[in-house]
Amino acid sequence: MPIDYAAFAYAIAVAGGGVLGYVKSSSIPSLAAGLLFGSVLGYGAYQTSQDPTNVAVFLGTSTTLGGLMGYRFYNSGKIMPAGVIAILSAVMVVRTVTRYFSPPLKTE
């Protein structure tokens, strides 16, 4: 059961982005959303570390966050933070789906 470091890093980046948004502009919604999504992503990363086929929470949260931030980026045109999080989320969705459908590694 290898640890999914990329998924944990993504969860930490989302939570850290919420904290940074609060520190820079005193945005409580940014703090709440960052910590909420970061926590759920952390739980999903833990699940995928325990069982690589248990991707529902992580995939659903990444897709939702990517959609929300992609919509915000489309409306505002601002790369930071909406564009960056939308791109990271899209990368994580593709990575998760690819890992789910790829054959497991053979260990002897």
UniProtKB/TrEMBL annotation:
Q: How does it sit in the membrane?
A: Multi-pass membrane protein
User: What's any GO biological process attached to this entry?
Assistant: regulation of heme biosynthetic process
Q: In the UniProt record, does the keyword Flavoprotein occur? A: no
Could you list this entry's UniProt keywords, alphabetically sorted: Membrane, Transmembrane, Transmembrane helix
Q: Name one GO cellular component term.
A: mitochondrial membrane
A Pfam family that this protein carries is: Tmemb_14
- Membrane spanning residue stretches: 6-23, 30-49, 55-74, 81-101
* Family, similarity comment: Belongs to the TMEM14 family.
Give the highest taxon in the source lineage.
Eukaryota
- What name appears for this protein in its UniProt entry? Transmembrane protein 14C
Query: Do the record's keywords include Transcription?
Result: no
For this protein, the record's InterPro entries field holds: TMEM14, TMEM14_sf
Compartments reported by the entry: Membrane
Q: What is its main location?
A: membrane
UniProt lists the gene as: 105617258
